[in-house]
Design brief:
This protein is mainly beta. The chain contains 1 helix and 12 strands, in the order E-E-E-E-E-E-E-E-E-H-E-E-E. The strands form 2 sheets. Strands 1, 4, 6, 9, 11 and 12 form a 6-stranded antiparallel sheet that branches. Strands 3-2-5-10-7-8 form a 6-stranded antiparallel sheet. Strand 2 and strand 3 form a beta hairpin.
Length: 177
Amino acid sequence: MVLALSIDANDRDAWQDAASPSIEKCSFGDATWNDSGGYQWSLPVPLGATILDARMSVFSAGHGGAAAEYTVVIHVEDVDDATAFENVVDHILLRDYWGTVVSWTIPSTGLPVGNWSDSPPLSTLIQHVVDRSGWQSGNYVGLGIWGTTDAGGANEVIRDYHVDPTQAAVLNVTYVP
């Protein structure tokens, strides 16, 4: 089965930096800016399904700050059903994440503006969640993204549900029930 899942509500994608939260925008950046992005999708995949491929697609609205390559890491929430984001400090960073991450190297020019970009494969992360004993088809899976390397203050402005629901992040999943 092949799924292309869109963010379905304003509180299912979010942003925060060191002191400011928002469900009205989405971005992530290098370790200097402390920008973190959060994304959640209702995932109609049954417990124990085999995830063959999973990738997140984001639509870039711009690249800010320094022009240097940097690495972000993608985390998956280690819960059976991710709760919606709120406009409170650390509503992304302080969630319960699984220890395994996927690294994504962002080029020095940033993600291509006005285009969709795919993350590296996230199959291991999504598989971990659908293998949890409390997982149920239709529960929300949540991803958090933030920088681990310092590029001198670079970030990616990602379209979110609040600005344009048709350009909110998409989770593409291929699985076998």
